[in-house]
Write a structure and sequence with these properties.
Layout: E1 2-6, H1 10-27, E2 32-36, H2 39-45, E3 53-57, H3 65-75, E4 80-84, H4 91-94, E5 101-103
Parallel strand pairs: 1-2, 1-3, 3-4, 4-5
């Protein structure tokens, strides 16, 4: 399963990657994980149907996660999108871009 993590905080990205790898080992799922440090980089390199799941930080430096999600949805309405944030108040806005869920 191809997964994109869009997170500007390296420690947070590594933690999420470790959790996914642990889950994958327990469930016999192989995750191929690509990390992007900005929304701009992710959108620039995004190709439809490459990723099964996108984990997207809302509080990115530069283009924030909500704008990144809007641009992602312009290109791909079907990819599973999960926001990762410390800010629960952004949860409602995630429904505007058809996010599956939030990790707070």
């Amino acid at each position: 399963m191809n997964v994109a993590i869009v997170e500007d905080d390296i420690k947070s990205a590594e933690l999420l990657k470790t959790c996914l790898q642990k889950y994958g080992a327990e469930k016999d799922i192989k995750f191929d994980i690509v990390h992007f440090t900005s929304g701009e980089e992710f959108i620039e390199k995004y190709r439809r149907a490459i990723y099964s799941i996108v984990f997207l930080d809302i509080e990115l430096t530069g283009m924030n996660g909500l704008e990144t999600a809007r641009r992602l949805r312009d290109r791909d309405k079907a990819v599973t999108l999960i926001f990762v944030t410390r800010m629960a108040q952004y949860a409602q806005k995630g429904y505007e871009v058809d996010a599956l869920d939030f990790m707070i």
